[in-house]
From TrEMBL:
Signal peptide residue numbers: 1-26
Name this protein carries in UniProt: Macroglobulin domain-containing protein
Keywords for this protein: Signal
Organism from which the protein derives: uncultured Cytophagales bacterium
Amino acid sequence: MQYAINPAVRGLFFLLLLAGAGRPAAGQTDTLHPVYRQFNTYRTGALPEKLFVHLDRTYYLTGESLWFKLYCVDGVGHRPLHLSQVAYLELLGPDRKPVLQTKVSLADNERSGAFFLPASLSSGHYLVRAYTNWMKNAGPDFFFEQPVTIVNPFKRLGPPVAAPDSAAYDVQFFPEGGNLVSGLPAKVAFRGVDGQGKGIAFSGVLLGAANDTVARFAPTRYGIGHFTFTPTAQAYRAVVKVAGGRTVTVPLPAAYERGYAMQVTEADGGRLKVTVRTTRDTPRSSPALYLLAHTRHAVKVAETRYLEDNEVTFMVDKNALGEGISHLTVFDADRKPLCERLYFRRPARRLTAAVKPDKGQYAAREKVSLDVTAGDGAGGSRAADLSVSVYRLDSLGGPGADPHSYLWLTSDLRGNVESPGYYLDGDDAGVPEATDNLMLTHGWRRFRWEDVLRRDTAAFSLAHLPEYGGHVVRAKVIDTRTGAPATGIMTYLAAPGKLIRLYVARSNDQGLVRFELKDFFGPREIVVQTNPLRDSTYRIEISTPYAEAFSERRLPAFDLSENVQQTLSERSLSMQTQNVYFGDRQNQFRAPVLDSLPFYGTPDERYFLDEFTRFTVMEDVLREYVTGAYARRRRGSYYLTMYDKGHDMEALLDNPVVLLDGVPVFDVDKIMAFDPLKIKRLDVMARNYLLGPLLLPGILSYATYKGDLAGFRLDPRSVIMEYDGLQLQRDFYAPRYDAAKARESRLPDLRHLLYWSPRVPTDAQGKARLEFYTSDLEGVYLGVVNGVSADGLAGSSTFTFEVRNVAR
């Protein structure tokens, strides 16, 4: 998907090229134009992708299910995106090791699923993270992450984790623009966190080499603040006093003798003043400096200015920048990035979801009707894709992240952002300064300028490609004689079953092969092999599809308060009761509707062997009633001949490919020795068939009764393993009490999670209506609605109601 550049920006860009602010245009064309052009080339080939995950809750017990809905949007306009068709979702333990993993289809009407939390999990804080293969290029800091708490009521807790000591405190300093330069005024942001990654209160002093006080500072909010000073050629250190009077000493980044410094300040007329200063003796090929500003890869400003008295100023209209986070980067005449920082413009609109229950209080097992209206916050309606969760409020956690603050703020910043809603919704006088400090301390980008500004014309390469058509299995072929990657080796993947699918790939110069598995659902056994009759000296290693890099996010220490013991006991009883009485209904999966045709389509001939005289020798089966395929012996071994029905029955040049439940059998003697009484069906494709990089000289496809190979022994050099496909869709179970018999049932209904729907589409007027029933538990219930509209608005809302009079 390509995005048009603002015409005003394009006009300004070419105006600068032609007018050149009084300088020759030719020189600017040689330098600025490649920056602008190469960045646009990069962004059109590296469209950022974002995932947001709505969890039904953030606090769970083992024995419960964690339900989720995934929203996949483009990283520029936050519109729903259909680039990747597979997402990876993991539950990471306190040690950052995955304890549960799954693959989720991102096709329409799917994009959701659940984890059943097994009793093997220990109590603690966990991290749900989600990403696509394409998102791996940006690194784990760009993955969606949501902390959750899981309590195992059947495992005794260990002793509480001790509070972090002073050595665990972390204080970091971030010069505006990237560097300190001796003799140039500087703004330095700082951030102090404890061992659990939470912002701390502290006071600090900046000391010079002679222990003289240069500046005093303290955070304004969430451990973040800034101070200003003009560095000189000496070593600085910050002495920070934290809680309890303990101190932490941190060296300040060293100041360069020569270089560039950047300052961004508010100016009149809704503009930003971007000032760039340099030292007199800084080497440079030209006085020209270039400012490129982009908002999530969409170029908004491209300007040229020239140094005068070692200083240059760019005046940027804030309205020219997009909403959300913009990157402002200054380049020299050689296209080298000199300074960079972020700027945040609060978005003016968001998706609203007004929810109106038909009552404020309900009885047990009573129907709840909700009217939902989605809008843009300015009186307009919006068709939107919503997800809704309704659960009993207790002291065990609350809603998770909301899509508005995630997509506009935290997804574009490195590290944990405390209370992101403050920066988007806060109205006190300190919000602008706090937001600017956040931009300085959490700044990052998803790319390296070195990749963007390559001087050669070859396209940049990305290690991880989007999975357009389905999950891609990656493997490596290795020569066992040398241990080196094997090039040009044809490799085969099949999953034994009634649905006949075969995938082939040829290894590249790194020995890598990729198999795109379309509509591959549920746990399956896969067989990966080369042709052992030709390539018997190769080993295949299957790569994990899950990311093996992790963000630096830290989870807090887990300590279960005595105040929640009673609440946990009640919820544990409810969980066990629901699993005993309704466990079978809570674990029902929907099989996807798939094309039942084999990969080769309708065969030329199909034989159901039970309709013919059964033979006990496979050779007799082929000789007596299969036309177009013949088995003969040569030097004690069988070989097959097949005649092409599409070309006057000419003999095909090689043995046809023999399949058993979709798995290639290269040794004809083995299939001829197999018991034909175990075969239900035989398909014959008496013609050449092109499958990916391989031309198949006809196909002879045997199918057993159960699709399980019926005891056939595969080649021992094959890789045979259990492999999870895309997660099967699981239905959320909630009883209906629309009949008197159901309402009067003596089976207890102790549901805490009353309702979960990952797909609540609104109509063109933004309207939707939901209905569900309360349980036997009285209390206050919280509803959470998340959603994204087709034009990129995101938002969240909550509502409450009460359940009373539980006696029936």
